[in-house]
What does this fold into?
Amino acid sequence: MIQNLFLNIDAGTIDWSRAQFALTAIYHWLFVPLTLGLAVIMGIAETQYYRTKDNFWKKAAKFWQKLFGVNFAMGVATGIILEFEFGTNWSNYSWFVGDIFGAPLAVEGIVAFFMESTFVAVMFFGWKKVSPGFHLVSTWLTGLGATISAWWILVANAWMQYPVGCEFNPDTMRNEMVSFADVALSPFAVGKFCHTVTSAWIIGAVFCVGVCCWYLMKKRDTKLALESMKIGAWVGLVAALLAAATGHKSAQDVAAVQPMKLAAMEALYNGGTDIGLTAVAWVNPFCQPDYANEESAPLKIEMPYALSFMATNDIHGFVPGVNDILNGYTTPDGKVEPSIDEKIERGKKAIAALSAYRQAKFASSDDGTTAAYQLGILKENMPYFGYGYIKDKNDIVPFIPVNFWAFRIMVGLGCLFILFFAVVLAGAYKFPKGLWKKRSIESLPAWHYWVAIILIPLGYIASESGWLVAEFGRQPWTIQDMLPTWAAVSDLDAGSVALTFFLFLILFTTMLAVEINILLKQIKKGPEK
Amino acid sequence: MRKDSFLYRVYDLYADGFRSMRLGRTLWAIILIKLFIIFVVLKLFFFPNFLKQNASGNEASFVAGSLVERASP
It folds into this structure.
């Protein structure tokens, strides 16, 4: 399916709906992380003002708040389009899981967004109206509101990866929430939230450092550049280290509940114990590898035992590969995972039982016996319901090249950012002294500053790559194991979906161009004199 | 309303803030245009509620039929 989309645009409704959702989500995620990241930068700058009462810090805080405001204004409501798409393009999905999926989205809108939008007004309008302490609190609460918004959206996405806290009601055809706490505090959600937010802080930090480097290159606003660079680099280094740690936790969660995603991320065709972590291998970016017949990806360079350790905290731990998951396997501790063919059979039983139950339930001739019997079969096989839609077991293998390379781009850039921020801090604090005797960070050759500026788009590429792993790795499921894309999508004309795809492409690209234009003008203008 | 009352101070915060905006006016214009495009153009003409249009009142049966049909060989 993906192959068709990329190489021979498939006009089918399913792929255009997926492409449209991917496009709008990718664009939405261009605005959000800078909001989350700059919230920390501007909060620290204003905290410095509150502590020192030095007007320099007030101007610095206002400068970063202005850039925050531009990005906030451009990004606001871009997420709402995703909700429109649920109702139009993914109507089966919306009905089937809306009771659970809709709840965190509703809380986000009512609580978090209101909090953010209330305090952002105090932040921008209240410099002369409220006390410095209240203004500082408002600035931090603006960022906290944005972060709480992220929490609820990530709770919703985490539920798609690991559906918990629900029970299917065959009368209403809806999965109903049985535990809000299980959904809101799912360990998958917690891990995802921590990793996503820390990665957003990296983007804010790399943006801050990049802007500061531009000022140093132009030999203007040097004090703002040097002091803000320290803030950006500290935030960036801490965030990059936290992102690495939380990313490890996230990967362990994936190993536990989405083993096929982990196998795709690693191009692990055949698993086992003592599995190494692949640093790099030759995985053709444009076609699905022949995992059924190849032992492993060619030209593999791996760290021995590392994947077993990272997935299971045991260097001898069992990690299933693509073929193990397809054909079924038994773990060393005796746990049996059925083959996909077995799951497909049970899924078909569940769907047939659902149909028979509903017919019996709404037939006046049935005394309830048939309905009760079919309900029993449905409940017994419900964990495999989604597999009833799978025609060929290979349909459940996500497109390995995207997962494999996106994961490596994300991790590679993440490691680069740790090094980058450490080097920037060394330069900003002139550490070690001997290295900086004959040079200073204010007067480096221009190419040094250009490296920092170029890292700004690379920060976004790393972040978007992470989302590609998360979402492509879950394919073909909209909800893991519960509903594949072709069952979830609305029966729409492919042409109308394609039309809105291109409308969004034009709308979002225009918004992005406008934002970049305004941001560049404000950066060139600099802080108020 | 007394000028030292909480409500007046909230009103004054927003009124004075909006009056003294410069870059903010441009951003608000962009926000309003964007919201118009999203809620009036896109939502009304391109994003109808599919189930409401096709199964109003019978969503459960419609979705059940759709899900069962898509599992058929």
Notes: The first helix of chain B runs from residue 6 to 19.
